[in-house]
Amino acid sequence: MMKDPGLLDKRLLIVSGKxxxxxxxxxxxxxxxxxxxGKRTLLVELDTVASVSRMFGKPEGDAYRERKLGTxxxxxxxEGKAGLEEYLQLVLKSRAFVRRIVRTPIYQYFLNVAxxxxxxxxxxxxxxxxxxxxxxxxxxLYDLIVVxxxxxxxxxxxxxxxxTAAETAxxxxxxxxxxxxxxxxDPLRTAFHIVTTPAEMPVNEAIxxxxxARSGLHLPIGRLFVNQVYPPFFQGKDGxxxxxxxxxxxxxxxxxxxxxxxxxxxxxxxxxCAESWEKxxxxxxxxxxxxxxxxxxxxxxxxxxxxxxxxxxxxxTLAESIEEPDPSLKGKALASxxx
Length: 339
Known about the structure:
This protein is of the alpha/beta class. The protein contains 13 helices and eight strands.
């Protein structure tokens, strides 16, 4: 059983974090988990590098075209410029006319100078997708929508636009923006998840993003996924054995002959790896302690997965870690704090 059964119960899961922390693979993992539980799931890439389809062994697709990734799971790439063109087509009822408009210099100038227009159209598409229903019914077309957002530096400006437009715009734009803002801020329908790694810059950005999302945007905060956590270093008897071995290695060469020299080099290479592991884990524990002081029980620790690129195998491994958290990842410090 999943330790957090309510994790997938919302209608909209927004996943954000600094570039390079595994934000996209965590979003893909949550979507994959939901699809495996029979939920009709849509994985949306919001103005990011369209990459999630490759994790599932599928080629990249075009913006605003749903693509099947597996049973109960599809992906959809949302891009602000394409969103505006889609909106114009709905209003003008002519694809050919819209094509002519978007090629004009005045349109391109307007697109570049209109503050937040592309962002508003992109985020507005999330509301449109959430509103879609199965033909002839009131049942939602998608049970769950998981959104992979742009990196931390851009996501706040994207999610801020509906709130700003709802307060400053007039008429139709204000009404539509209010609908989007209400969805984003609704704790019954939406959860805002943050992904980080236990390192200085990602941790600083995660805490800053948390404050902006909670206090500035009034988003319902979900989980903090701490990705790429190293396992704790040798403890107990294993730790004692390691320290004895290290002490022997530090005394210098212990054997003679070329064959023995080769074994010596291998052991020293292993020692260097062990020292790197020990140092990295020690640093990570310090940053995890800092995160716990802010996020408390909202933290979910995900293991470091040694694969060359994100794939379905990585998604399965992370899903297992979310469903059955490994208590050993906490180490003694976090375990004693009750996390």
